[in-house]
């Protein structure tokens, strides 16, 4: 075997794990046959994968969905492979030397930093929401503690403010409302005996930007049915929590509201602080060739962008699962070409193209029902509940972490 090349994946969530398992299952064996030695490094600041999809229900009460069910050790997902072929690094990517082709990782165990040279690099560090209860901010323990803190407060709350009109805000408000207030009976639009005043504030003039106006109106009706009021055109400017645990939010209209519980669920920030500015767009997303899913050419050869941190992504699993086969195929093409020893080392023939969809596709559970669409076709509430609201799809966690999700060779492609 030749010198060992490092295949480094930053981020061990849906996107990073999808690429890492594709590499070990479908790409590395082909390189092994050519006598080329590769080692996979998966780097994540959290030791555990977080199924954030389930957090809107989990934050409400452990009796509905215990936090423990949302977290799984990332390293356990690789146990079926030869231990010589991979390393899980628990640490935070702090900087990236593009010229030197090295990333610097701050190790989570306090041992300082590790510099990791790479032959190929995959950026899959995703995005974060304002609250660690709904996304990873550092290690998973922070997210788990944040969920458990809300579990302690919500059952006795008589006032709850949720900020954000996207799916996370709508689902969370729906779960809180349903848990505290129950649901409206037949021929009623609101619960008869609500226990708490639950308010969803959004700076937009409609809920759920991905879905149509009709479905947004349907969402408000369903929120009302679990005792949630929606206030449009207002954003939370700041919030202060006092010693009693009550939070006062200052709103963009100048008002101040106080509630037992405040849950910020608006907007996302890309986790790309380690990347140089010239490789990011104005919002901090990594500039990506939207057809090949390689990073901008200025990032150098064999650098790829997977999942939500890329400027090509619409976010969500639909976009992710469409991108993974494209990434795996083009990575395999590049590495086999590089292994061929040809002077230009360019793969022959066209790259596998990514064709992202802009169709109206989203499923948003709201209490015992929900709204949604697939390719512009309305999903009835009971189907949204069946597909997602029943258990927030936690059955997908094992196959995401152990790689069964990409068990079939996703690099097989005919032009
Ligand atoms: C509350 C919530 C509910 C959602 N519900 C749905 C849904 O129902 N359907 C759907 O399709 N999509 C949903 N999504 C979106 C979906 O979760 C994302 O599209 C998906 O997780 C993106 O995967 P990713 O791997 O790109 O990034 P992420 O899941 O964001 O993961 C990024 C990973 O990178 C790590 N990381 C970040 N920075 C660094 C660093 N500097 N160094 C090392 N590691 C780092 C993080 O710890 C994390 O593990 C939801 C998102 C949220 C927040």
TrEMBL record:
It holds the Pfam family Pyr_redox_2. GO terms for cellular component: cytoplasm. SUPFAM superfamilies: FAD/NAD(P)-binding domain. Transmembrane segments: none annotated. Residues 340-365 are annotated as: Disordered. Coiled coil: none annotated. Residues 6-314 form the FAD/NAD(P)-binding domain. GO terms for molecular function: electron-transferring-flavoprotein dehydrogenase activity; flavin adenine dinucleotide binding. InterPro entries: FAD/NAD-bd_sf, FAD/NAD-binding_dom. Keywords: FAD, Flavoprotein, Oxidoreductase. Belongs to the FAD-dependent oxidoreductase family. This is FAD/NAD(P)-binding domain-containing protein. It comes from Cephalotrichum gorgonifer.
């Amino acid at each position: 075997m030749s010198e060992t090349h490092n295949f480094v994946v930053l981020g061990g969530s849906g996107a990073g794990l999808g690429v890492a398992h594709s590499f070990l299952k479908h790409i590395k064996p082909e390189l092994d046959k050519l006598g080329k030695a590769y080692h996979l490094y998966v780097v994540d600041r959290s030791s555990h994968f977080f199924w954030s999809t389930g957090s809107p229900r989990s934050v409400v009460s452990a009796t509905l969905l215990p936090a423990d069910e949302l977290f799984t050790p990332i390293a356990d997902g690789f146990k079926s492979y030869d231990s010589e072929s991979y390393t899980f690094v628990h640490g935070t990517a702090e900087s990236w030397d593009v010229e030197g082709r090295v990333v610097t990782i701050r190790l989570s165990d306090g041992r300082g930093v590790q510099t990791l040279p790479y032959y190929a690099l995959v950026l899959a560090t995703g995005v974060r929401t304002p609250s660690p209860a709904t996304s990873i901010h550092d290690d998973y323990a922070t997210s788990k503690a944040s969920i458990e803190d809300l579990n302690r407060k919500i059952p006795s709350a008589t006032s709850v403010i949720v900020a954000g009109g996207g799916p996370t805000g709508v689902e969370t408000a729906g779960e809180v409302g349903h848990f505290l207030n129950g649901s409206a009976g037949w021929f009623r639009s609101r619960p008869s005996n609500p226990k708490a005043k639950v308010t969803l504030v959004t700076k937009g003039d409609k809920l759920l930007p991905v879905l149509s106006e009709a479905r947004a109106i349907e969402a408000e009706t369903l929120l009302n049915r679990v005792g949630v009021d929606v206030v449009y055109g207002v954003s939370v400017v700041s919030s202060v929590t006092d010693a009693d645990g009550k939070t006062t939010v200052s709103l963009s209209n100048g008002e101040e509201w106080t509630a037992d519980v405040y849950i910020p669920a608006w907007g996302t920030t890309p986790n790309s602080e380690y990347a140089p500015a010239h490789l990011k767009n104005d919002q901090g997303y990594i500039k990506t060739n939207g057809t090949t899913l390689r990073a901008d050419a200025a990032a150098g050869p064999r650098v790829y962008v997977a999942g939500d941190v890329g400027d090509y992504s619409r976010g969500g699993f639909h976009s992710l699962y469409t991108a993974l086969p494209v990434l795996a195929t083009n990575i395999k093409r590049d590495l086999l070409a590089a292994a061929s020893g040809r002077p230009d080392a360019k793969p022959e023939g066209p790259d596998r193209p990514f064709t992202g969809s802009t169709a109206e596709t989203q499923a948003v559970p709201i209490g015992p029902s929900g709204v949604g669409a697939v390719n512009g076709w309305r999903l009835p509430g009971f189907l949204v509940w069946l597909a997602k609201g029943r258990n927030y799809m936690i059955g997908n966690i094992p196959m995401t972490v152990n790689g069964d999700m990409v068990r079939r060779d996703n690099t097989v492609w005919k032009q």
